[in-house]
Write the structure tokens for this entry.
Amino acid sequence: MVAVTGNDQTRLTLAARAIEKGSAHAARVGNITSSANLVRTEVIVQPKAAQAATLGVTPQAISDALRIATQGDYTQQLPKLNLEQRQLDIVVRLNRDARLSMEALKRIPVQGSDGTVMLGQVARLSLGGGPAIISRYDRERNINFTIELAEKGLGEVAQEVSNLPSVKQLPEGVQLQKHRRGRNDDRDVQHFGLAMLAGVLCIWVVLVLLFHSFLHPVTILSALPLAIGGSFVALLLGRYDMSPPVLIGLVMLMGIVTKNSILLVEYAIVARREQGHGPLARAGRCLPQAGASDHHDDDGHGGGHAARHHRLGVQRHLLRFPDGDDGAGWADHLHGAEPAGGAGGVHLCG
């Protein structure tokens, strides 16, 4: 929606009609409607300042007399008819024929300082046309344009309207206001950014409590910048504007990416814990290995037996068990492990 504002109703109406005509030819959009086109016939009352001042009649008194005579008094001031099950308002006003007669309206009594006088004595009444709805923005009258975007984006249409000659040459005292939806979208994007930041921080705190680590949550949330960046690239390629549906889609995308990252990290942690993909298992596989039948020690034991004792000694040195614990339990476990290398081979961990 685009709006023009100003204090002079005549200049404002002329400018609005010029903008509406130019927008229909230049913007190549759908239907364009303006609140200035909503005109209806009305009775124009112009007070006679000199006579009204002499008789002590105020504009408020003229307004109240016309309102009560044509529409009735306010609901809270109307007399009531009390029935058994309900209460009815009693509205007193002129009948339809009198309301349509200018002569009857001129004879409406108006309260003055020295008594009542007829409306025709203190005001001029005439028929004319005026806007059906008077709207204001920042205490100035405004005329709103509703433009069907068709296949164009809101920002593109607003830019084309701003470049119209009728907009660049507005009469004095008339200004073009930015479309309200655009202002609301800018505010929504700012609030959405703050909400996203707060949400990411809350997710990080929950993940720290869940994994008991500060590193795993960072690993999980590192996928968010890539996902959001990819979504912006898709919006640019598709030439879509930033809108509330897009923001909702970003929230859903963040949730899906975070969930998948949590599952991947959790599966990796479980695999390392249950399947032995850790430093202890790598130490058992990467220590020196020897064949079991090619070499014999002095006691007649096979070379494989000597190699296993040598490997266990190195493992005890590498694992650095606490004082008082020689790692016998771990050694027995590793003693029964199958050699990972060939005969006489030595394997080094990278």
